[in-house]
Write a structure and sequence with these properties.
The protein has 91 residues and is mainly α. The chain has a single domain, classed as 434 Repressor (Amino-terminal Domain). Helices cover 69% and strands 0% of the residues. It has helices spanning 3-8, 11-25, 30-37, 41-49, 56-66, 77-90. Helix 3 crosses helix 4 (41-49). The mean pLDDT is 87. GO terms for molecular function: DNA binding. InterPro entries: Cro/C1-type_HTH (IPR001387), Lambda_DNA-bd_dom_sf (IPR010982).
Length: 91
């Protein structure tokens, strides 16, 4: 992830980046994640692409499917703070 992306991304987009990293580590495709979640592949795609924000319930379900803790899918605090500042300054 680039520093520019970190500064302009929403928290949901940063979480999607972390989910993709966890999927890569487990060699899991979006289709496989969708099967584990009992949702369509487009459900996964919409969330990972940013078309649909990832809510807390989604995050918990995804963490369970990936067999990781929710905290492992959150970006580092300094990067998350940058996303929060970007959103706060936009209003």
């Amino acid at each position: 992830m680039t520093q520019a992306h970190e500064r302009t991304a929403t928290l949901s987009q940063l979480v999607a980046d972390e989910i993709r990293v966890a999927m890569t580590r487990r060699r899991m495709s979006g289709r496989e994640l969708a099967t584990k979640l009992n949702v369509s592949p487009s459900w996964v795609s919409y969330r990972l692409s940013g078309k649909q924000p990832i809510d807390l319930n989604d995050l918990l379900r995804i963490a369970n499917a990936l067999e990781v803790g929710v905290h492992e899918l959150l970006p580092p605090p300094d990067i998350a703070a940058g996303a929060a500042e970007t959103r706060a300054n936009a209003h």
